[in-house]
Amino acid sequence: MKKTTITLIILINWTLCFSQVEKIILHQVVGDTISLKEKIDYLLFPEIADTNFNYGLVRYINTSYYIISYFKSDSLIRQIDSTDIYNYHKNIEKLYAYYSNKTQSDNSSETSYVILTDSVNKSQKLNTNYISPEMRKKIEYDANRYQRLNGEAQNQGLKGQDRQNYINTGGYGELKFKKKK
User: Fold this and answer.
1) How many CB atoms lie within 10 A of CB 90?
2) Please, which residues have CB within 8 angstroms of residue 124's CB and are 6 or more apart in sequence?
3) At 128, is the secondary structure helix, strand, or coil?
4) Chain segment 85-97, per-residue pLDDT in tens
């Protein structure tokens, strides 16, 4: 075990000295060093057990990405795909938004919503200004009208289809006559 650890450390140092190495930051929330708490909170590296995990680093060496995991008594280097790096980044982004929204809703009584957007592709942003001011006034008018008519129908004791007919006809009731034979 000690020989493997020493060989691994020598291999890492040799690789770091003679190759092009870049630190990879999965997300600004976790930085370049991933602690055990961050690994668990953001569901990172599920293939690596949490039991002895101390911290981890993501590095780009030559043309590949690697996870360098440091355990309490050992270390491990594992190659990963660039798609995994992207998926880890998106996972951190989503969970960070979730945790932020959860703490905001715990602190305040009003409901707030977080819109998750893809920071890589700016062209897919949600356009929220597609409703014109005239359309907003009409929506507000129709909503107020519906609430008023629904309240009146409830006060009159109308239920089911009679209530819907009352609301849809603008408060005018329908009179049905049966012909006598």
Assistant:
1) 15
2) 117, 118
3) coil
4) 888 888 888 888 8
> How buried is 94 (Cβ within 10 angstroms: 0-12 exposed, 13-18 middle, 19+ buried)?
middle
- Residues 118-133 have pLDDT tens digits of 454 444 444 445 667 7
Q: Which residues of the chain have pLDDT under 70?
A: 1-20, 103-131, 171-177, 181
The residues near 152 (Cβ < 8 Å, ≥ 6 apart) are 166, 171
Dihedral-angle region of residue 61 (phi above 0 means left; psi in -120 to 50 means alpha; beta otherwise): beta
Contact 61, 19 (CB under 8 A): yes
Quote the CA–CA distance of 122 and 120 in Å, as a whole number. Answer: 6
